[in-house]
Amino acid sequence: MAITFSGGGGRVSLVTIAANGSMTLAGSTAALGPIANAPYWCIQCGDLIGVGTHNGLYVFDSALNAYATPPAGSASISTTPQADSAGKYWFYGADDGYVYEAQVAAGQPVMIYPNRYGPMAQFGSSVQVGDCKNNTWICAYLGALDTNAYLIPMDSRDSVLMACITVASPNCSAGTNPRLWTHVEVGVAASPRTVHIQGWSYYSP
Questions:
Q1: What is the pLDDT of residue 173?
Q2: pLDDT(172) > 90
Q3: How far is CA 27 from CA 2, 12, 182, in A?
Q4: Alpha-carbon distance 49 to 40, whole Å?
Q5: What angle (nearest 5°) sits at the alpha carbon of residue 149, between those of residues 148 and 154?
């Protein structure tokens, strides 16, 4: 079980629960910043744990190793995030009234934000993500403190892809050249296989 704590600078801890109900601490993170809500454990996407903080979204693996961290200046979060079934995209309602879509990829320690939706209102519930429109789109659902419920249909997916040429690790580590970067949009209404290339570059860092 993953548990978040608002005290001590904001932490997330793992505990194991025995058959008699006793709990044993299995691990804990360093201070992340103020935390206002529960974590989301995405078992189906490889045991990733998302934690919303006032410093942005953090994603950890099941041993509480950092998997992805927010970029500087990320919006404060007081709700629980949720991931898609692959764990590549995470969604959350932020305190600024926007719903953010964060892209998380192995080998990219800082997540990126392909999209945000809004502004709407201060959110009072955590985002729920599921299929809609005959299972061809993804929809996000959430409630706000203005007593409204919001539905956000997403008929296309923005993605940033990076690759490098190397004989060692598949990740683009420091000093690996050359590299390819591309920003693509996959899908439009009634045509989920459509691909638009928004931009690309081939470079040596």
A1: 58
A2: no
A3: 10, 9, 37
A4: 6
A5: 135
Neighbours of 53 (CB within 10 A): 24
Give the contacts of 147 (CB within 8 A, at least 6 positions apart): none
Whether 157 contacts 186, CB under 8 Å: yes
Residue 74: per-residue pLDDT = 92
d(CA 95, CA 109): 24
Residues 12, 32 contacting (CB under 8 angstroms): yes
Burial (Cβ within 10 Å: 0-12, 13-18, ≥19) of residue 29: buried
Alpha carbons 64 and 59: distance in angstroms, whole number: 9
What pTM was computed for the model? 0.74
Q: Which domains does the chain have, with CATH numbers?
A: 2-154 (2.130.10.10), 156-205 (no CATH)
* Structure-token match 């691990």, residue found: 27
Task: Classify 8 as helix, strand or coil.
Answer: coil
